Amino acid sequence: MVLPGGLLTRKEEPVPLKSICVTLSIREFVAGVSATLNYENEEDVPLETFFVFPMDDDSAVYSFEAVVDGKKIKAELQEKRKAHSIYESAISNRRQAFLLEEDKYSRDVFCCNVGNLNPGSKVALTLKSVQELPLEADGALRYVLPAVLNPRYRGSGSFEDSCLDMKTPVVPLEDLPYTFSMFATISSQHGIERIQSNCPFSPTEYLGEDKTSAQVSLTDGHKFDRDVELLIYYSEVHTPTVAVEMGQPKDNPDGFMKDPSAMVCFYPNIPEAQSPVICGEFVFLMDRSGSMQCPISKQDKSQLRIEAAKETLLLLLKSLPIGCYFNVYGFGSSYEAFFPNSVQYTQQTMEEALRRVKLMQADLGGTEILTPLQIIYREPSIAGHPLQLFVFTDGEVTDTFNIINEVKRNRLRHRCFSFGIGEGASTSLIKGIARVAGGTSEFITGKDRMQSKALRALKRALQPAVEDISVSWDLPRGLSAKMLSPEQTVLYKGQRLIVYALLSGTMPPVEATGEVYLKYTLQGKNLENRVTFSLQPKPDDNFTIHRLAAKSFLRAKDMGFRDTPAKDKKDVLKISIDCGVISSQTAFIAVHKNLNKPVQGPLTRRDVPRPVLLGAASVMPQYLGCALPNAKSSYFSPASQPTRTSRYEGMPDQRDGCKPCRPMVSKDLCALVFGDNHLVQLISLQNADGSWYLDENLAGILGKSLEDLLAAVPVKILERETMMWASKVDTCDIDT
User: SMART domains recorded for this chain (predicted)?
Assistant: First the structure.
């Protein structure tokens, strides 16, 4: 509401942040983002204001500037401690100052400080970033502007110097006291087929008849009430490309920016495996913290996070291959396991797991994922069954880097597939644990269904890994390439691979070209992709490729302000400052040095409220303040624990010819647990070997009578097994 004192929070405190304006420029698969925060001090006293906000983990923030009453002030990137010292000195000397920094514990949380904002003053703070856009399974490029920064659980660790520890106020999305606007321009030489969004956008306006450029914008009056998602479909996305960008040798004679840089984008034509992997140890780590009781999104009738996760877990359990091993862990402030150790996948163990799934609730307190991860990694490996870890979480944790480091330390013995559930899930955590352990990450929000994404990940886990990946260059004499990207260890069919390199030496004449090769092996076969490209670098005032290359390097080396190894901290700091890309070790600082006179009067603090999802406030005490004992519980007595190499004791193995037991899931129970999703209901009745019992439950879900089903089954099948329908549906192929 607008009152004479300005926009107010529920505490009747004026809010100096008036609006957020975002300009988005997408060229091919790279997004350039310019976000402007408009402040105005409508009070009679000078202000110091704080604003904590989310950004995507992949964003390379390279510019920060302030326009104060028409005067532009460009910030400098400094070592973080030095930047803080400059800011505190400026404030104490009554100078206007502006500070932008990445949180010390997570690279997807930022804090903006505005110090000594004079009464009546207006300031526009603009930060610029670039990022690669991920490719969805259906060929869409996905851009997300994070809006929601939900409270992060702090656990028992010490996070007093986190941005989130400033205790900035939170408000429901509908009560946000500032407005939001966004304008986007998209261009591609291959042509734009369509643009979709989860938010109300203006009709797409194509610029030119060839549809290589288009513009869209959020409709007027949009409330920043959800993450803004754009899906961009080009006519062709699987063409490999190489882009070469000019360096800046005059201004950086010895730095990272001196030489030209190259960005190589491969789309390897990886063939389908001749025989999928049927072995493996599949461990599902399910978030059961209080925040999982929140809805996935702000939308009406949005599914609760825990219910969506349970529904997805059922599909995954139904899709495992007979003979593999599996287990399910739930975690919060404490954790629980379905079985004392991973058990062999049979009809009986599957049904036991499904009974446990139905009982799962978001009742385990805070989001403490580190301990169950360590427990899982301590378990001895099962010979011939490599570990595949599936993590489902809303990511509301503070110690992001500690968790990523734990996964990274165990990367050689497993692959990790991660799923961020709901608005506000930490992109730093979800992307980070998948990246360091050779898996993939997915985000599920709004109407977006989790099942198809989870099943795609399972299908990838069942494929043999691409091995012996290498990138090599064929360049003219006198020119060499220095790789900047971390070594890629795993590739999956349909995935894109982006690598960066610096080109040093003498650049050849205009007509010269180079080649780059991607080589790998799959099931003993040697495969190769190659791209020929022009060696004439193109100028870019924003040095987009250099900064994306720097971000790729920083992602691999920067493990947080406190946790980055000493041997890497020096390189992180140098690369960050050379390229102007923010890191955990640096911060942007700007001081209004030409202010005519010091700011007068006592300084008053104002914290800009940040949005939370509807429903989060009701469970916040449950998962922010909970301190349950850290104890592992099991539903089995020690005497019944199987060894790691034996079958689950007391339960017959289907491969020995035993028929599966009659399923204990009825049609009515399916409808109660899984609503009107008939596909999920159908899969819930499926046996471990892929068959169904021909009974009234199956007939009811299919909308047929039992007599109709029996009539449709071939006579030979009925003669062999009158109670089962042996036609298997591969759930891994559903909706992919």
Answer: VIT, VWA
Cβ contact 641:379 at 8 Å: no
- pLDDT, tens only, 684-714: 677 766 677 677 777 777 777 777 767 776 5
Q: How far apart are CA 622 and CA 627, in angstroms?
A: 9
Chain centroid to CA 105: 16
Question: Tokens standing for 526?
Answer: 């040697």
Q: Which residues pair with 497 in a beta bridge?
A: 266
Q: Which amino acid is at 485?
A: S
8 Å CB contact between 330 and 336: yes
Check residue 690 and give its pLDDT.
65
Q: Flag whether pLDDT at 360 surpasses 90.
A: yes
In Å, how far are 22, 279, 347 from 72, measured between CA atoms?
Answer: 19, 61, 68
pTM of the model: 0.80
Q: Are strands 414-421 and 228-234 parallel, antiparallel or unpaired?
A: unpaired
Token look-up 């957020």 returns 20
User: CA 681, CA 672: separation in Å to the nearest integer?
Assistant: 10
All domains in the chain, ordered by first residue: 2-151+177-237+580-596+604-610 (2.60.40), 241-268+465-551 (2.60.40), 281-462+628-653 (3.40.50.410), 659-736 (no CATH)
Sheet holding 76-79, edge to edge: 76-79, 586-591, 97-102, 109-117, 47-54, 604-607
In the predicted model, is pLDDT for residue 161 greater than 70? no
Q: What is the DSSP letter of 86?
A: H
Which residue, 189, 232, 183, is CA-closest to 208? 189
| Contacts with 281 (C-beta within 8 Å, 6 or more apart), sequence order | 324, 325, 326, 327, 342, 381, 382, 385, 386, 387, 388
299 closest CA partner among 179, 200, 417:
200
Helix 667-674 crosses helix 305-319 at what angle (to 10 degrees)? 130
Q: Kindly report the number of other CB atoms within 10 A of residue 618's CB atom.
A: 11
Residues 83, 199: contact at Cβ < 8 Å? no
CA–CA gap between residue 586 and residue 84 (Å, rounded) = 10
Please state, in angstroms and rounded to a whole number, the distance separating the CA atoms of residues 342 and 643.
Answer: 9
The torsion angle over the Cα atoms of residues 251, 255, 257 and 262, rounded to 10 degrees, is: 150
Do residues 280 and 383 make contact, with C-beta atoms less than 8 angstroms apart?
A: no
d(CA 268, CA 496): 7
- What is the Cα 37 distance to its own chain's centre? 25
In terms of DSSP H, where are the helices of 298-449? Answer: 305-319, 347-359, 370-378, 400-409, 427-436
Answer for the pair 523, 545: CB distance below 8 angstroms, yes or no: no
d(CA 673, CA 85): 56
Q: How far apart are CA 568 and CA 585, in angstroms?
A: 11
- pLDDT (0 to 100) of residue 150: 61
